[in-house]
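Data card: per-record layout.
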Amino acid sequence: MRQNLIVSVILIGLLFAVPLLLLTPETHKEPQEEREVFPQVEVGELDAVTTLRVKQGDSVTEMSLGEYLQGVVRAEMPASFEMEALKAQTVAARTYTLYKIQTGGNHADADICTDSTCCQAWISREAAAENWGQSAEENEYKIDTAVAETDGMTMLYDGAPILAVFHSSSPGRTRNSEDVWRSALPYL
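The structure for this 188-residue chain is written out next.
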């Protein structure tokens, strides 16, 4: 009986030990979560050929209109918004930028700046990625797509870019431009 008990313990031990011995480190790894891969989106042809001098603090950097718009949309609107909202923001930002360039803007040494109190907010790809964490790749893809799919789209009045000012919220109404600024703008 004692011999049967010893044999039983050995067999049960082998029953559990053999599978553990057969497992290699590679088959014992935890399954990794599959991440969606987002393709690189290139700036559109029209936005790529326009070079801007962008004032960032005390320095001036040259970048394409497309690169600048990506930074503006990153800063001005949450990337979690719907694609059509991101596209509308992009068109407004592009129009505002071109308006500032055509009217002389506020800077002698640059076309536009990254200060939201003067021109438009702007954030670099790296700074946005740091803020977004694990959502960075998806958010960047959405913004790059919005800029690329609206390449060159601008709001015009009498053939010129409008002053495409925008705001994040209003208490259910807006006012005429002449009630806020010195002159009436018929499209506002």
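Known properties of this structure: The two ends are 99 Å apart (CA to CA). The beta strands are 51-56, 59-64, 112-113, 156-157, 160-161.

See the next section for split statistics.
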